[in-house]
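tool_call: predict_structure(chain=1)
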Amino acid sequence: MDSVARSIPGGGYNSLKYLLGDVGVGKTAFVNYVLSVALRDDVSNGNLWFIRLDIHDSSQGDLPGPNELCVALAHKVKKVIEKNIYIVKDNDAIWEQWGAFLPLANAATALSEAEEVGRLRMALSALIKANLQGGRRLFLVFDNLDFLCHLNDRGMFSDDEDAQLNPFLLVVHKFVGNFAHDGILGALGANILIVTRFDSYDIIRTGDQTDRFPKREDVGYYELEEPSLSVVYSTRKKLLDFALSTEEKAGKRKEFKRVTQLIQKHMESGPEESPRLSQQLIEITNHGFREVMEFFAQYAWIGDKDIEARLIHQYPVGLLTYMLHEWRRFSQMHSHFPNIYLVNIEQGEDCTNLDPYSDEHMHPHTYWLKWLIAKLIEVGMPYSGADYVRIFRGEEGDGYGEREIRKCLGSLAEANLTNMARAHFERNPNHKNKLIITGMSLTKRGKHCLEEIFQRFFYLQLLVDDDLLPIPRCIYDHFVYEDGRDYQYVTAGDHGTYWSEAKKMIKLKAKQVLLFMIVLEESLAIEMDIHASIFRRLAKDGVVPPDLEKAKEGLLEELRAISDIHEGFMNVEAIDEFAESMRKDINIQLYEMYLASLDDGD
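tool_result:
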């Protein structure tokens, strides 16, 4: 990899290489390692300067175009040079180009006109070329192109047959195209490394109309495979020890030590404490090891041993905290973790402000469609996106509503949020701006959640708080509780306060979860009745309904174990008996909800 940075591109043109790997394998960490270790002497000796542009961070929450990204790159160049002024100060020709570039970079914003960006681009080109002529090569890294590749995941199933081309892919094509041999910035003589995921590169290549992104087998690229946890822990420990030793300010060193000690403590915990929280987290994160480390660092700042033990050694508490994503209560929209039983028809629709006893609250819904689609994807049949729609719609249109099917497919494939499934594409030869969805597969998170998460108490207790999840009227009041009742207690410093609040919440959640299990049981029976032909069709592919009786017994065992550990603080059988007493009313009102859904459907 260091040879990519050191090589001298031929003919004064840029050299474009690719670093590809699945989500969370440490691509950015690897680039940082190469720069800090393998290329340290080159940078120190002034033979090389380095710019890393994070496409996600550069967007600052906006949706950037190619001009905005060029401005972001110019600002990054300006920032790096101002911090390392020797890059321009030791050569009169370079200093002159820096003087021409600086005022343009200072004036440029994301709203700059195309003509202004054009002048800035020319000044940037002249500055980089002057450095090259002075013997200093530029190593330019474009990281996290995945952000743009997956901005439109939720809507890619909206077409009748094919996926609409994500308009933000055109931004990627144009921006990277600036640095190709025939691009405006193609003759910088820079070594350029594009860092992205395998699926993102395939999406970029499939939608490319310029053929600048060839098939993977035809392009020079570097591939990172997922390392083992032990390797990650040992290398991260060395990094943490090094970072701690180099921190100069005593106050910062003391605070940073809290973080490093917690992470190192978890790294060194013995196998008898399996399953480790980190082993569970690595299966369900969106960003792999980086996100695991960020999670531990986030709570290490608190510096409380009770909290540390709570998160590390009681892995369900740690998982619950991770799924909340710093929110006091769970919602799929904010927590960035999938609610498998939610099908929200309109993005942003909020049922909280609706009267639970009004007809408005009973919007078209299904508790099981998303789960069924995920199970069919898991089977691995060679179905296209259109096939999934047809299967769940039914031959006679007697299945689930097409709008709901497309929403579920989009939700499962939304990489920046739920990240349950991945769509695979081919270019549509008959439509310039369309792709053909040729298949789908589950992500690591999708597989693990289906097998280990979606019917566990620590998950179900959270998702019933989701504002968008419809609850039958007859039990709605049991899901509304006083203000201030939330999960802040998880990080309570006082151990006694934590357990006092935890017991109250667990008793409340036990009732809610057992009621919701009845909702799931009864709704599954209704959906199997209403859409009988769909379930028969799914059975041919090996997709069968879950064993909810077994799942409920597992929940009861979890609740009994929690209660027994703490001197039987709740009567699990009595709570279950109450929930069962509501079954008939739940069944009646679920039928009302489903009938309303059918009346409002396609």
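agent: The mean pLDDT is 82. Proceeding to next step.
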